[in-house]
Amino acid sequence: MTERRIGIIVNGASGRMGYRQHLVRSLLAIREQGGVELADGTRLVPDLLLVGRNEEKLHTIAERHGLTEWTTDLDAALADDRFEIYFDALVTNLRVANIRKAIAAGKAIFTEKPTAESLDDALALAREAKAAGVVSGVVHDKLYLPGLLKLRRLVEEGFFGRILSVRGEFGYWVFEGDGQSPQRPSWNYRAEDGGGIVADMFPHWNYVIENLFGRIEDVYAQVATHIPERWDEKGERYEATADDSAYGVFRLEGGTVVQMNSSWDVRVDRDELVQFQVDGTLGSAVVGLWGAKIQPRAATPRPTWNPDVPDAHDYRADWHEIPDNAGPDGFDNGFKAQWEDFLAHWAEGRDYPYDLLAGARGVRLAEAGLESSAQGRRIALEPLTEA
Ligand SMILES: NC(=O)c1ccc[n+]([C@@H]2O[C@H](COP(=O)([O-])OP(=O)(O)OC[C@H]3O[C@@H](n4cnc5c(N)ncnc54)[C@H](O)[C@@H]3O)[C@@H](O)[C@H]2O)c1
């Protein structure tokens, strides 16, 4: 079997996402399984160059995983022809400058979202990548969650009939940091450092919605900073300047209404940290990260409103869990699956659908959400198919 090596620069290798999901769960896992199999049977095997600020951290990570190449010098990494792909998992506000350098160095780009803090910057990156003829990809990991893979199956099989509405709840309690330590990096709560739940989550909602339900025609959002002060990694108090909750309503081409609550200030009374209820003329589904249950029209109970007697009906019992049907190995890690898909597209010279332009649509939804909230009005979104 032919083997082809592919050099990947991993910038932000010590970060929360860069280390756990991208390095360990994706790229190292791909190496361990012997690479990605291409259509012609060739196996594409990644060679990794770790990049970061802190030499000690990089050294420790490299040793732990048997890697030999790391550097704190991004320019030197970009000048190295052995590495053809640049991956970025840095904090959001450093992304544009670094990706821009990587495009100029002729590297293919794979990046975390959001691709930029403003639509202008996001579009500029998409244009620059196109002009330089480099392949680009942006994470869209939520589409690979088992629950959402099951949802896609339901949509494609026509289970719902006409989809009327989608209600999504995402969130959990993120500790403020004065007592128990916070479970997310503090920059997420500072607007000046690229934080905010809209910038973080609306790019995800954009690709989830446009790939499963249709194009978003307009958005109305109310955002809030419910908790105005938090404590950082060093236990120091800081002002939380970024939005920590967002209540969005998206109207789609075709009439479906999607309502999404995103919050780091809610306590969970759901089966999972994210949950979507989809209601259609022929049936409904409730899906989470993993699970998916359905209720077809023919098995829908007939509730009647009666405030005089306690309702003894167990509504939750009316739903049917749908099986994984994912083969003997179950579902793969979503980050790894999207890496494999991106690498295969890159190697086979195919256009990648989740590119910097798709990433820019995600940034646009975030920007429009914030604008809607600031102005108290609905913002229309024209089709965005060219940078
Ligand atoms: N796809 C997802 O589900 C998902 C989830 C969380 C975060 N993210 C995105 O991933 C990115 C990273 O988030 P995270 O939670 O891993 O953050 P993090 O703070 O854990 O990691 C950020 C990385 O940036 C580096 N960094 C920070 N400041 C720097 C500086 N001044 N110079 C050079 N490097 C610097 C850090 O060393 C670290 O490697 C963000 O853009 C975020 O939006 C995506």
TrEMBL record:
NAD found in the keyword field: yes
Stretches assigned to the GFO/IDH/MocA-like oxidoreductase domain: 149-285
Keyword terms, alphabetized: NAD
Pfam families: GFO_IDH_MocA, GFO_IDH_MocA_C3
Domain Gfo/Idh/MocA-like oxidoreductase N-terminal: 50-138
InterPro entries, per database record: Gfo/Idh/MocA-like_OxRdtase_N, GFO_IDH_MocA-like_dom, NAD(P)-bd_dom_sf
Coiled coil (UniProt feature): none
Domain of life: Bacteria
Protein name as annotated: Gfo/Idh/MocA family oxidoreductase
Upper taxonomic lineage: Bacteria, Bacillati, Actinomycetota, Actinomycetes, Micrococcales
